[in-house]
Design a protein that fits this description.
The chain is of the alpha+beta class and 155 residues long. Helices cover 25% and strands 17% of the residues. It is built from six helices and seven strands. The strands form two sheets. It has a four-stranded mixed sheet with strand order 6-5-4-7. β4 and β5 form a beta hairpin. The longest helix has 9 residues. It starts with 14 loop residues before the first strand and ends in an 18-residue tail after the last helix.
Length: 155
Amino acid sequence: PHDPNCMADLGAQYISVTPHYAEKHQSFYEELLSRDILKPLLSPVEGMVQKEKGICNYIAPRGISSLVKHYLADSDVFYNRHVTHINLKEGKLEVCSMSAPSEMFDAVVLTMPVPQILQLQGHIENLISESQRQQLETATYSSRFALALFYEAGT
């Protein structure tokens, strides 16, 4: 569309927070809510399973990526890179991608789904402990299908 205000985020549709996690990270949620980065999810979600009482569900009106962009606003960030390998070299992280030469970083934030993180090659297996790997492997997703259609004015 020609209107820069049009946006479609077809990624995660909502975030579920347990009462324990909400209390433990209350200041983060308060900040995100006060800046309208997160808003309470008020409508029902077909097929939603509440595994625990008191879970709060939130949406990100400007897309889930707005969470990452908020926290990394003052950082030098590279978006839309298809990372294939992460290696540890001389205390730095070497990141190899399909679209650019490898680069060295002090820290790397991965925002892709868990199955893709577990498929990364290189020293990543040594950088994630066995218990972390097991926790990642237990992540579950509920399938959702989305379609975004934009119509020009007057059509």
